[in-house]
Amino acid sequence: MHIKMILEKLQFENKNKIPMHMPGHKRNLSLSGEATYLSKLAADCDITEIDGFDDLHDADGILKDSMKRASYLWSCEETHYLVNGSTVGILSGIYGATKPGDTILVARNCHKSVYHAIEVFGLNPIYFLPEIDELTGSCAEVSYETVEKLLFRYPEIKLVLITSPTYEGIVTDIEKIVSVAHQKNIPVMIDEAHGSHLGFGYQFPNNAIQMGADIVVHSLHKTLPSLTQTAAIHRNSNRISKERLQNAISIFETSSPSYLLLASIDGCVELMIREKEKLFLNWRNRLNSFKKRIEKMQNLVLLENEIKKNRQVLYDDSKIVISCKNTNLTGIELMELLRKKYHIELEMASIDYVVAMTGMGDTDVSMEKFAEALLEIDESCEKRNFEQKSFAQFTIPRKFMNIRDIALCNSGFVTLEKLCSENVSAEYIWAYPPGIPLIVPGEHFDDVLISNMIHYQKSGISLKSSTGRFPNEICVVELLKNDRI
Ligand SMILES: Cc1ncc(COP(=O)(O)O)c(C=O)c1O
User: How far is CA 304 from the centre of its chain?
Assistant: First the structure.
């Protein structure tokens, strides 16, 4: 029997596929025509901190210089390179900005790493829902009024944490949020994992650093030309202690950072400094031509225009969100059709829409093939005019106990069919992507949430759970008879 090796699978199966997903380099080794750092990153550069090279945890040489250049590029106090993704940036940022037991204000559409930070550091979260985008059913921007009201109601809040842009490209205008938080000297942290390309013009919105956030996390690999796992955390004010942040990073980040990944970040930063005008202009022109090409679609809908028609919002149009709500296709079916017939791989499918990610690594040819495929599918699919595919409703489940107290409880398993509103979850359940938990340990299931999970499951959206037993079994707290429900 021939055992397929991972490298073989990577080299052959990916060869003729068009990547409309992260990472932003799109496996394009030349980007602007010439071979870049991306073509040189191989085992002959694979070291960690040996003599003569700098120590990421105590940078004083080539890494310090490179991170300084990055802080100029993003115009912030300081930038730290990360080789464990935004995940480690989020853990470090929250740890660096809080003390155990602190209360933090958290938009509920946060990535699971935020909940892990809350769990591990014993924080007291006050969750709130951002605005809900009616077209996708997903969480959208955070309203300033919501934050202002909650900061007034809970004066003990020590940190405000918001995700922007969302997976669907909606950007929160945080300027007023920052100003109301700063009046109380409360720092604002933005998970801008999907927005490291923002703030450089070319019709992309400003980034969170420009809008005054105190701490910002970027997954460079998602939207810029840098290898997977590369990220950065930017400290943008003295409301966050330099020393506490440095200490936090050294706790959570590997002690053997890969120089392949560091060279990739360095190369990406240099490319941005030297060639960003040309690269952004090419990206913008490709995006505009693509959008013009698909204007003819009759059944599939580019959601950007609809979202902007609905209300005033900042939008990152590097994300191409296509709704198939008025057709006989579900999001999963559309994604599969693009994969199987057109060899185009998307970033994500939801119940009635799909998300494609563009980047500097796209080419005119790949964008044209994507447009052609959408036009062909648009012509061949059937128009339907009913609402049955509508999305699941977002709710914040009722809290029964703190996430970290779950470790002190007995737990058992129930099936999805037997799950009821008396059950308290002992695990996280989330859809990946985007990795936003539907429920976190210590929260009650409720009827809306249970029917949402069944709806997702039936629609082919795969839900995952911490124990890995979903959908067969769900880990719940074993409550004693006199426990409060
Ligand atoms: C909003 C958001 N934040 C953080 C992360 C984690 O980023 P990384 O994969 O770089 O660790 C993700 C990953 O998908 C994300 O979508």
Answer: 18
